[in-house]
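Supplementary Note 3. Input sequence used for the single-chain structure prediction.
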Amino acid sequence: MILDLKNANNEKIVGNKAKGLYELLKLGLNVPNGFVIKYGTSKSEIKSFINKKCLNKSIYVVRSSSNFEDSNNYSFAGLFDTYIGVSKENLFEKILDVMYMKNNNKLDDFCKKIGKKRDDIKVAVIVQKILPSEISGICFTKHPVSNNLNEIYIESILGLGEYIVSGEVNPDSYIVNKKLNKIKSIKPATQHKMLTIKNHKVVEEPVFSYEQKMSNELIIELSNSAKIIINYYKKEMDLEFGIYKNKLCLLQARPITT
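The predicted structure, written as discrete structure tokens, is reproduced below.
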């Protein structure tokens, strides 16, 4: 079974991450177009779908959406492979790599730690057209260090978001007072490299930026989106976002588990 993200409303079929993207779309927030492949979908169905629906010149992000991942109790962050910049000709291979957790020894260790069996984990696969983000980042709806519930904490960098997740570059940090909806703190960081898209490929480029990455207007827009998400879920959330042509897109929403 293969579903458009707009129809991915059953986490038992599509996993928690895809259900989270469905919820963001339902709230009227911007999310890149994509689809989700149920665990165990036949190889022939996957191949047929790719041939009919995916474009030769498009590039994609392929990532997991398991039944435990991004749940209230477990995030599994960093334990499943994510592939960025995948061409149509390589989509089938990468989808199977994610679905069947190939070469994933870290996951075995984590399963032992939480008392789960590897066979308990079923991985659906999300495929989205890559957002050519000019700015990317993460947003915690409470301060991740002080746990202050009245502070929204944001980090951002230039380019695609993989370098903020991996720690390859130091991000800007911004703090927004949740009640007053005002920026409390802005700390720009120096950035010397970024990931971007050129000629349908993800490439690293040098960049020399010492200034604030996100405008104040976008910081407040993201803060407002974060409050919409909090009000919906009734819990504090960890968000990932990208900005392209001054338009904010949400890439992920999951409960804060630490």
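The first strand starts at residue 2 and ends at 4. The mean pLDDT is 89.
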